[in-house]
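Model the whole thing, not chain by chain.
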Amino acid sequence: MKFKDQILTDDCPEFKIIFKKYFPSLYLFAVKLTKNEFLTKDIVQEVFIKTWKSSNNFENENALKAFLYLSTKNQCIDHLRKRKDYKPNVPVDEKLFEETYLDEVVREETFRLLDIVIEQLPPQRRKIVELTLKGMGNNEIAESLQISVNTVKTHKLRAYKTIREFMGSQFAVIILTELVNFF
Amino acid sequence: MDKIYKKFRIAALLIEEIFGQLSTEGETELKNWKEEHQQTYNYLHEWENYKTRKSQLSKIDVSKEWQVFLRRNHQRGGTRFHWGRVFKYAALVFIILSFSSISYWLLYPPEKKVVKEVVPVEIPHGERKAELILSNGQSIQLYPSYVNILKEADGTVIYNDSAMISYEGAGKDDINKSNTILYNTLNIARGGEYFLVLNDGTKVWLNSLSALKYPVVFTGKERIVELTGEAYFEVSHDPAHPFIVKNNSYDIEVLGTSFNISCYDKDDVVTTLAEGHIKILNIKGAEKADYNLSKNDQLILSYTDQSVKVQKVDARTYSSWKNGSFCFENETLGKIFQKLERWYNIDVIFKSEEARSYDFTGILPRFENFEIILEMLETISDVKFSVDGHTVVIDKK
């Protein structure tokens, strides 16, 4: 049946949005694990193809996100095992992998969330976030920008509200299988 | 799996901390994590690291990657592409081609063509496009290639990307400020379709020549929307707040289920239930009872005599349009062309009234140009078509 091809070549709006949202993050995440920029795009592509073909029903975006990160990690391990210079007597240090990848998830997710909001902030608020990341407290920020501490707090609250709107994402229940298994 | 969820939570807490919005519980949770992961914490608090990541991001062309994904997925079985080999063959083919065209050119030098070429008008398939009317009356054109982030007067964020528009409610304090309900309308012209996610998570696929009016945030006891045309609903489950689809002929009440409804002007009103249960009430015209439908039930309110008929069907046939194909089961050519008219923005004339009632069962691709559709119909049925501009004349063979 041609239908299957069609739905795959045609843009599936939901999957495309997920792809565009997470491809960059998964790529950066995988580069950290493989330390190889050239092959990593391939790895992440493979992850998305698997996700598309998998028959999982994802309850919400968090579940899908977890699946994507875990698949990327596994794909990276596979890749390291298959590498040409891989010698059987030097196995991939999987234990180390398990420890480091979770830290990388925190790093990437935090920056990803920050990214969503930072671009949309007015310059003053962006500056405040930047100074916070540089380790400055509210008092120091207020002093260096010549504004009151309360203004700094208000700016932070407003910036946080912008990000909240995106964190409580509504794209719940993503049923990928329904589309594929139609016929 | 649990571990990774915890990390997502840590990321959210870190954000809260950066913006000074950490609760006391959050603070202890984060403190525990910090003790073991001081290095990661420090890493995240280096502006340089953020900037480095930013420059790495700018090197990724996501649209290009999406095209790569589509291409790869197209090959069945998910085998990897061996680019090296592909390039080698491509180069070879290119060399052969250039040789043959050079020799062809040498043997038969080009002559000037005198004959004027008649270029037939191509009728393209419909597209994903829509018009959004905001509560202040402002009109915005939506296309798949656009990303729009809009804000309604009550703070609701409207997000349009990749042929999908969704609503994300603002914080609670923002909503309380306004008492009036704000409505948006999504209009789909002939030759269009669009996908919408309402504020409660309900998904709506809208077909050509349709319009849906809905509140940007559902606030009252009931979730009420108004439809003309055709749509497929996947209503998110919420028994406390029934979801009601109103149209010119009747109301459909649901708690959480999926169904297709077609309610075009001067046509039968057809509701087909894919999952769960729905209730049809307030049927206009003569006094009519309410109807409870279950899976694969179809209720038809006839346009010609206002009669009501309930029958069993395969509901998937009636929602196939949202997945990119037209499915027909013993459908008359007359009805089929009503649908094609809306999607291809064409006008249809039946020269033979008999042809109008011919039955047809099959599947037609929605994202093919019209010529291909006609070719497919012509080969399997006893009709012939002639196309003049955007008018199609249908006759017996």
